Amino acid sequence: MTTPTMRIGRRRALLLSLGALALTLLLPVIGLVFGIFTLVVSARSKAVVGIVVSTVVVMMAVGMTATQFYFGDELSAYNECKKGAGTVSAQQECVDGLERAMEAKLPFLAPGELRFPFAP
Questions:
Q1: Over the Cα atoms of the chain, what is R_g?
Q2: Mean pLDDT for each consecutive 10-residue tract of the chain (120 residues)?
Q3: Are 63 and 10 within one domain?
Q4: Which pTM value belongs to this model?
């Protein structure tokens, strides 16, 4: 039997987990911290949907954060290149440089195999 207090706690846990998802898409490191907090809140209130969403959010945030840390130097170089690129062709050269730099860190990709569908 669920009481009104339990329903409010479960609803709160679900809303917190959706907020953690939004934060993860914007700022993965903060989303990771908020996702862990939300996972604890969801577990305490026995909100199954909140637990599932929070777990997915934490896994996404870990993956996105790890990717940002692994490619940190390449992304910084890309941002610096973008600042000085005044033409479309110069911007494309920045994207090509980022693709080549990322390929160098990914040994399972052949040169020229990584192509972004749109500029990051």
A1: 20
A2: 84 94 94 95 92 96 95 94 91 93 91 84
A3: yes
A4: 0.80
